[in-house]
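cron nightly-structures :: item 1 of 1
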Amino acid sequence: MKLKFKSTTYLSIDDSSSSIFETDWIDYKETVKDEFIVLDFIDQTNTAHHLEISEKAVNFSYGIQSFNLVLHQRQKGLFKTDVQDFWIDWYLKKVVIAKDTILFDYDILNNDQILTTNRVLIEIKDEKEISN
């Protein structure tokens, strides 16, 4: 089995969308922890990703970032950069878990203003199903 991870942002300023990050079809490890599906993978930039996803929460970390989101609850999170770290609010809007797809939408806010709406789409396929 292989995984494809895609993150897209939708800017509230002009309703435009753009790809934040996308992997090729890559190997991954899947386990279960309590109510969470746990996915671990290393992307093409050699960055480790760890996601814990349930119907009511998403916890994810990659590189130096780590966030814990709860469905329909505003969560404060520290966003780390090489220049400066800053606090922003996260709001998990939707989680969909299907047989071969996981999708979640969340807003990033600053002072009650939505900066972006982001969507993460994770597809899982058998290697035989992936066309080259």
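cron nightly-structures :: done
The chain has one domain: 2-129.
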